[in-house]
Amino acid sequence: MSECETGLELRSLIKKSGELEISLADVAVPEPAADQVLVRVEASPINPSDLGLLVGAADMTTAKASGTKDHPVVTAQVPEAAMRAMAGRLDESMPVGNEGAGVVIKTGSSEAAKALMGKTVAMIGGAMYAQYRLMKASDCLPLPAGTTAAEGASCFVNPLTSLGMTETMRREGHKALVHTAAASNLGQMLNKICIKDGIGLVNIVRSKEQADILHKIGAKHVVDSTAPTFMDDLTQALVETGATIAFDAIGGGKLAGQILTCMEIAANKTAKAYSRYGSTTYKQVYIYGGLDTGPTILNRAFGMTWGIGGWLLFPFLQKIGPADGMKLRQRVVAELKTTFASHYTQVVSLQEALQLSNIAVYNKRATGEKFLINPSKA
Amino acid sequence: MSECETGLELRSLIKKSGELEISLADVAVPEPAADQVLVRVEASPINPSDLGLLVGAADMTTAKASGTKDHPVVTAQVPEAAMRAMAGRLDESMPVGNEGAGVVIKTGSSEAAKALMGKTVAMIGGAMYAQYRLMKASDCLPLPAGTTAAEGASCFVNPLTSLGMTETMRREGHKALVHTAAASNLGQMLNKICIKDGIGLVNIVRSKEQADILHKIGAKHVVDSTAPTFMDDLTQALVETGATIAFDAIGGGKLAGQILTCMEIAANKTAKAYSRYGSTTYKQVYIYGGLDTGPTILNRAFGMTWGIGGWLLFPFLQKIGPADGMKLRQRVVAELKTTFASHYTQVVSLQEALQLSNIAVYNKRATGEKFLINPSKA
Hints:
The first copy, chain A, is built from eleven helices and 20 strands. By secondary structure, the first copy, chain A, is of the alpha/beta class. In chain A, strands 3, 7, 8, 9, 10, 19 and 20 form a seven-stranded mixed β-sheet that branches. In chain A, β1 and β2 form a beta hairpin. In chain A, α4 crosses α5 and α4 crosses α9. Chain A starts with 5 loop residues before the first strand and ends in a 5-residue tail after the last strand. At the A-B interface, β17 and β18 of A face β17 and β18 of B.
């Protein structure tokens, strides 16, 4: 590699004019400092959390393709009402891709860096939709021999998020949990963890097909929020599991409040005395996604002992600290081909990731559809 | 006092038929055990928190008076839709009155009990709308000489709630706070605490008259939620104070979410880098009342670092423990005639408390209207 060599890096730009532009930039391949390594990225998933940065608030039904075969460009309009939420990123060309995996092809002079030469490593930290990624050696997660980059591409976001949920449950004194949009890749992973660890999990889905997916992998409690008996079904599952904490990917509408209401009904089934402030059982819903971007509506029919809040992986990892975070990562690596295996429906190059026909599929965020980008694919 | 002597005790009963009945029961005056004292109750306030138990969900426009002059009875209908929330108390005749003060007229044999003989004491624990109240000696708060029962009647609910707010603010790492329905008796007390302790307080009111009340007692930040410039005014006050925690007495509607939105805008004024998950500043709203019983509507335009929850005095006191709780009580007693002075617009007997004309006034929960019951008043 000569000093003037460049690699492709995917960029997302929202202009003050209200236009989204997704393109591939030629960026200089950087030279590792002493404690750094250069990784040739070979696999990086398109997670829902990546789409937020990739397409932002743009209306992708207005998307147009231009540019060349090697350097395709996609443009689309951001509705004016949504521009306020984009204020913080206007006219900044932003790299994308939270996590990925690849092979270390060049290292700095430190022992830790040199030890990684030729190894396949998993990475997190953004800018993974790129052919090359500079990393601190200590931030790389070396994968066991026999593990491909594709197998290690999703070591962080979904595995640590699902482990973060059961960890949060334990640390905040709950004994079982509720999960919504539960047939997602993440939801299936959470089921595998809970089955393995013997944790009660109430899965809330929005169709019979999604319920079937979960039953097939051994889920015990699956309730369908579109069923007329939803509130009773949910209450019954809460009584059986004792779940008093929920992780909600939907965010909008009445669901978060319905979960708290059913938790309160479940708690009052064992209450000894009347209190007009409701049960003394603490009930928590964490909203970690926004599949429904409409307002959250709480009827507050659940007493006074409750909380709702936002939940994100990175603040959670900061809270538990690096030592406990490392334990979670070690578990992910140990169970990468079982509990934490991800399945992709398509593997695409950077150029293919910018094809309108592909964007139309992965931007639906449909359960069961998951794309993997291989930036080193020709 | 002979063993068959009785005293009056106010009772609230909601029947399965959907009828509320408020009456005065003749109950036997109890004999104190060794560690107990008998208090002749002389003052007990009607707080919003008492009205919830006293009238429950009844529609007081349907109220009817019956009974005798000494034993008046009030009945009213509970709307069928509200009966579900009353399920826990049906057909139970419930005593009312969270707090009060009176004179110890009989004691048990323990030294602690005997030491209280003749003293004026403040009490909390329910059943204070009664002529006599049996208390454990250790649960009585003796008032300094020269303090009347009327002056000591409101030692707990409002003083400890307002102190609980500034305590919660400190313990959860915030440096200033927001309060809604801020011109209330409680809100005025909170202003006095914050002025004395040098704590930034943003008062949210719903009229110019309420703003005037607060300005007169020295409040610095008062914003009117009915003003067209409300969101900007609130944001400006949040920037000036750095408030990131709010205590909301309203509960329903958009206010709690608007507070979080303005906190997020204030936090982002100093943000260094774009994050589509919003600022990393933790923002909290505690709902401690329900002046608006409608649904809480959150537009979630405030990133992912936020929480909303219920807040109540008693769980707070349990959380901080008896030693720290005692420090708060000692401060209340020391500042009973200044910071924690309560003002009453009327003093009524138990019988007068059941007059429909009086109920119509105190059940409005209007700012500036506050009743004190003197059960020993003839």
